[in-house]
Specification:
The complex is a heterodimer.
Chain A: E1 9-17, E2 24-29, E3 41-46, E4 51-56, E5 64-70, E6 78-83, E7 89-94, E8 98-105, E9 108-116, E10 122-127, E11 133-138, E12 143-149, E13 153-160, E14 167-172, E15 179-183, E16 188-193, E17 200-206, E18 217-222, E19 228-233, E20 237-242, H1 245-249, E21 258-264, E22 271-276, E23 282-286, E24 291-296, E25 307-313, E26 321-326, E27 333-338, E28 343-350
Antiparallel strand pairs in A: 1-28, 2-3, 3-4, 4-5, 6-7, 7-8, 8-9, 10-11, 11-12, 12-13, 14-15, 15-16, 16-17, 18-19, 19-20, 20-21, 22-23, 23-24, 24-25, 26-27, 27-28
Chain B: H1 2-19, H2 29-32, H3 34-89, H4 96-111, H5 121-140, H6 155-171, H7 176-182, H8 189-201
Helix pairs in contact in B: 3-4, 4-5, 6-8
Classes of the chains: A mainly beta, B mainly alpha.
Chain lengths: 352, 204
């Protein structure tokens, strides 16, 4: 039965994770956990300057316990966190202008490296698919690319300028080493390396003239195959973009992204986060305290794919939702983080 | 008899008439052009004063720009020279990437057209130098700078950011959670602006 055919799908609250003493900004599920006998693990970060690690009590349990609270890592709000693809390293980006790299040692996490260079608040950090590159972005309008070297050495590969305002998020493509960034300047920029020479440049800018957003773009997410990207914005719309994936994967960095469809009218306030699950469900979290889920609609028009609302969970939190993240495994668990200081774990299941 | 008087009258007037032959239209021409004349005189005066003042201003700006450019290039030259010495002593101390960047910086500083401030390529060259410098410092994990080193964010930007925020806040001042997002004791746009400034300019 395909997702579309399932009926009575509901988003039920499984657990509320409390502990943060200020708004929770970011979340990330640890890769390769939550499946095959390994309990799921989740990291969260927030305005209370802490990074918290949560672990599922057992693979059959729905409860999560706080494994560790990391307080000394940053001196200001921790804005974003991301696991390396192998789950070996954890990167945390902070308003203190640094990005910390952490490693797990038994039950403890220690900071093995600190990346400095941004002039002010770092907003986001992202690992590429192979874990060989790391990208960070900041209010200083720059995007930095770092190479991960043995011995926890990080070489700065490039400092990319181009955005004219605060860069909100960076995200690597799931299969190709192409970097995406979105900003307060309403655009999404695509960055690729010219040859093999550390020469990274902006190969495309998705702005209002290409049917782009008309206000700050807060987040981007890719589908499993990487041929589509979804973005969300302060303009209260969600946009889906597509690319010729065969061209992109064959190394043609000029393969350009085109607008496929715009979803509007589902949220009436800024949409801060969007995440595409491996199964194809798009989740969004917004300042209207609601979570929306979208799936591809069966009736394809001539113009391309269309998306429909699967469900809207009103008042999912008491305040703005800053991040929504699907678990990387097939358990259809969704985590959401909010200004109310809590993280909620939801399960998408049929009620029949 | 009258004919003789008239011709005598004309004879008397002749030199005068001949003398005025170079005025094209009429003898009142000069007084009508008085406004234009004064305009031209005034313009001339203003131009000369402005020219002198502009020259002084230009000299001041030139001195200042020359100093800051020289200071920055000199700083890079110093760093590059030290790094090159280190590489000569211990060739493997820096990664290939860092060494490549140092070499590129060296070339840029050497090629920089110091005596041609109007050369169009100077802005790009300086921007490129700054980026490479930041990348090298980040990789080497060092913080090198001097008083007056140019930064990305300047006071004007902060002002614009604060104005944007005030507009956003005022637009939806009934939305209580926005207030809390920026500070618990903020009630008015001016308090909000102060808390933003403190947040933006506070120490890391």
């Amino acid at each position: 039965m395909t997702l579309i055919e399932e009926e009575g799908l509901q988003l039920t609250q499984v657990q509320t994770l409390e502990g943060h003493t200020d708004r929770v900004w970011g979340l990330a599920w640890k890769p390769a956990t939550g499946t095959a006998g390994t309990p799921a693990m989740l990291v969260s970060c927030g305005g209370d300057k802490t990074v918290r690690i949560w672990k599922q009590r057992s693979t059959s349990s729905t409860s999560f316990d706080c494994l560790e609270v990391l307080e000394e890592i940053h001196t200001r709000t921790v804005r974003s966190c991301a696991w390396s693809p192998s789950g070996e390293k954890l990167a945390t980006a902070s308003f203190d202008a640094t990005t910390a790299i952490l490693e797990q040692n038994g039950n403890e996490f220690e900071c093995v490296s600190t990346l400095e260079g941004h002039e002010n608040e770092v907003k986001s950090v992202s690992w590429n698919a192979s874990g060989s590159l790391l990208a960070t972005c900041s209010r200083d309008k720059c995007v930095w690319i770092w190479e991960v070297l043995p011995g926890n050495e990080f070489d700065c590969v490039s400092v990319l300028q181009g955005h004219t305002q605060d860069v909100k998020m960076v995200q690597w493509h799931p299969t190709v080493d192409v970097l995406f960034s979105c900003s307060y300047d309403n655009t999404i920029k695509v960055w690729a390396e010219d040859g093999d020479s550390d020469d990274w440049r902006c190969v495309q800018t998705l702005g209002e003239s290409n049917s782009g957003h008309s206000s700050t773009v807060w987040a981007m997410s890719f589908n499993a195959t990487g041929d589509k990207m979804v973005t969300c914005s302060d303009d209260v719309t969600i946009k889906v973009w597509g690319v010729d994936i065969a061209r992109l994967q064959s190394g043609d960095t000029s393969a350009s992204w085109g607008h496929l469809c715009t979803l509007s009218g589902y949220h009436d306030r800024t949409i801060f986060s969007v995440h595409w699950s491996r199964e194809g469900i798009i989740a969004t979290g917004a300042a209207d305290d609601a979570i929306c889920l979208f799936i591809e609609s069966e009736d394809h028009s001539v113009d391309g794919p269309k998306y429909k609302l699967l469900l809207k969970k009103e008042k999912a939190h008491d305040m703005d939702i800053n991040s929504v993240r699907w678990s990387p495994t097939e358990n259809r668990l969704l985590a959401s983080a909010s200004d109310d200081g809590t993280i909620k774990i939801w399960k998408l299941a049929s009620m029949h | 008899m009258p004919i003789c008087c008239c011709s005598f009258g004309y004879l008397f007037l002749m030199p005068f008439i001949v003398g005025c032959m170079d005025i094209p239209d009429d003898i009142f021409g000069e007084s009508l052009n008085l406004e234009d004349t004064h305009l031209n005189e005034g313009f001339q005066e203003g131009y000369e004063t402005g020219f002198a003042s502009g020259k002084d201003d230009g000299r001041e700006v030139g001195l200042k720009t020359g100093f800051t450019t020289g200071e920055e290039l000199g700083f890079y030259r110093g760093c590059i020279d030290v790094w090159n010495s280190v590489i000569r002593v211990e060739p493997t101390c820096f990664s290939t990437r860092v060494q490549k960047n140092i070499k590129e910086m060296d070339e840029l500083v050497s090629k920089y057209p110091i005596l041609e401030p109007e050369n169009e390529s100077v802005t790009d060259m300086m921007a490129s130098l700054r980026l490479k410098f930041r990348a090298i410092c980040a990789t080497l994990n060092v913080k090198l700078e001097y008083n007056g080193y140019p930064k990305a964010s300047d006071p004007n930007e902060i002002q614009v950011a604060v104005e944007d925020l005030i507009n956003y806040w005022s637009y939806d001042s009934s939305y209580g959670t926005q207030q809390e997002k920026w500070g618990p004791n903020v009630r008015t746009p001016s308090e909000f602006a102060v808390s933003c400034l403190l947040a933006l300019e506070g120490p890391y």
